[in-house]
């Protein structure tokens, strides 16, 4: 069974939707419908308006994720790396590309994504706070809440991706910094170890405050760090 399908091309890069993405839209829309501002639309009545705003926000969120991936891809292309595709998945997106030879380039490519998310986040929050909120006509209309929700989500996306742990961009930035001083395999191992340590701290924190999401995300981060480490050390042995 095909696990992804192509929806178009941007900058000559095939844009694909993973089949898990079909679940992502309703899950994200539901998340926005049951969370309060600035992460959702609880309190907006009638229900049909709340769910319409939530669905629109879910679509815009994935457009934001696509822009994040395109920022990585744009810079990677400029450095001459091949990008085979961008795929949108249940949680976020992946740009499949060659890893550039120069560690400094990998760091810049990795940083371009979160930087784009932070810029979109700040522009949305600035617009909401200084344009929408200050006008009584605009602030009465719940449709503009989408700008606030999108701003907050893009900030979360940017900050979360800067965590120095695989598979987040922060993990790649860290690896490329290490790779200036050591081999790529050793740099991956060191970055993965830091990622695992952060995952353990995150799990302990989650258990301490009684929030199940932290241990779940920590488990995912720990697994990703192990995979990345194993992948490169096996690659090293096979060369
Ligand atoms: Zn990214």
- CA-based shape: globular
Span from first to last CA?
33 Å
Oligomeric state, counting identical vs distinct chains: single chain
Query: Major sheet: order of its strands?
Result: 1-2-3-4
Bound molecules: zinc ion
Q: Could you give a short account of the major beta sheet? A: 4 strands, mixed
Q: Kindly state the percentage of residues in helix.
A: 55-70%
Class computed from helices, strands and strand pairing: alpha+beta
- Low-confidence segments: none
H and E string = EEHHEEHHHHHH
Q: How much β-strand is present in the residues? A: 5-15%
Instruction: Tally the helices.
Output: 8
Mean pLDDT: 87
Describe the model.
- The model has no long low-confidence stretch (mean pLDDT 87).
- Strand 1 (4-10) and strand 2 (13-18) form a beta hairpin.
- The protein is of the alpha+beta class and 239 residues long.
- Helix 3 packs antiparallel against helix 6 (169-178).
- It folds into two domains: 1-162, no CATH class; 163-239, no CATH class.
- Strands 1-2-3-4 form a four-stranded mixed sheet, covered by helices on one side.
- The chain is built from eight helices and four strands.
- Its cofactor is Zn(2+).
- Keywords: Hydrolase, Membrane, Metal-binding, Metalloprotease, Protease, Transmembrane, Transmembrane helix, Zinc.
- It comes from Methanosarcina vacuolata Z-761.
- One of its GO terms (molecular function) is metallopeptidase activity.
């Amino acid at each position: 069974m095909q696990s992804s399908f192509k929806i178009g091309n941007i900058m000559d890069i095939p844009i694909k939707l993973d089949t898990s993405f079909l679940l992502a839209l309703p899950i994200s829309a539901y998340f926005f419908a049951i969370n309060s501002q600035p992460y959702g639309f609880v309190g907006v009545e009638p229900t049909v308006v709340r769910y319409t705003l939530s669905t629109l926000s879910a679509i815009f969120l994935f457009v934001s994720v696509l822009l994040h991936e395109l920022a990585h891809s744009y810079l990677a292309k400029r450095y001459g790396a091949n990008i085979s595709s961008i795929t949108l998945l249940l949680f976020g997106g992946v740009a499949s590309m060659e890893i550039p030879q120069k560690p400094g380039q990998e760091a810049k490519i990795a940083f371009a994504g979160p930087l784009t998310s932070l810029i979109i986040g700040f522009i949305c929050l600035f617009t909401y706070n200084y344009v929408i909120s200050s006008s009584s006509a605009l602030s009465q209309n719940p449709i503009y809440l989408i700008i606030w929700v999108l701003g907050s989500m893009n900030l979360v996306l940017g900050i979360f991706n800067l965590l120095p742990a695989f598979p987040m961009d922060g993990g790649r930035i860290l690896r490329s910094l290490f790779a200036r001083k050591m081999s790529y395999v050793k740099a991956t191992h060191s970055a993965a170890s830091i990622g695992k340590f952060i995952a353990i701290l995150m799990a302990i924190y989650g258990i301490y405050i009684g929030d199940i999401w932290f241990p779940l995300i920590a488990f995912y981060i720990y697994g990703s760090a192990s995979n990345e480490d194993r992948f490169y050390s096996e690659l090293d042995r096979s060369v």
